[in-house]
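Problem 12. The chain below contains 218 residues. Write out its predicted structure in token notation.
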Amino acid sequence: MDVAALASSQSTRSSTALSQLTGNLDSFLTLLTTQLKNQDPLDPLDTEKFTSQLVQFASVEQTIQTNKHLETLIGLQAAADRDGALAMLGKTIFVASDKAAHQGAGATWSYSLPQATAQVRLLIVNDKGQPVAQLTGDPASGAHALVWDGKASDGTMAPAGVYRLIADAKDSAGASAQVAIEAATRANGVLFGAAGAQLETPIGLIALSGVKRVVSAQ
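Solution.
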């Protein structure tokens, strides 16, 4: 069941619950009115009990109304996610991943350094973890693009497939520095499911929350 269907189902249940509560409240008020009209003036009804019941009815009604508002928000968010995902179709996106697809023309990554380092070694490995190419990165702070031409260290073209980028940055003291990696891929389709809208890409399904940048349509 997708998000929209779930929101619709929850909305139906809330409407049913509210209808039942309204019927029960009407019955309660009818009985209360009858009791008040026919009470013994010398021995009046205990107002504390029916006041407590009225408070309970009001509390339940408020909870149901809150749920209905939340369901409306869920529906609006699901619609926004669908529109956002569809708008990315055919575009190049950067995602929070170290994996990129080489389909004959190489692959593109982006790596970011929070501060300048002494050196950055970039290693591209295949799906078996075997080294394919090794490059020297820019040690300056900030974001840097890495465009791999798809060639292995021996100069031959690497087979098409999904490759990982491993970045090893060290400061002047030889200590490892933090490196954030993003990969460029293409949004070829959209899958709508229980997990919400997900983009179909050459490196697998990508949640919308994993998209960091949308670059261009190609």
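Discussion. Residues 47-87 form the longest helix (41 residues). Students who got a different answer should revisit the alignment rule from Section 12.3.
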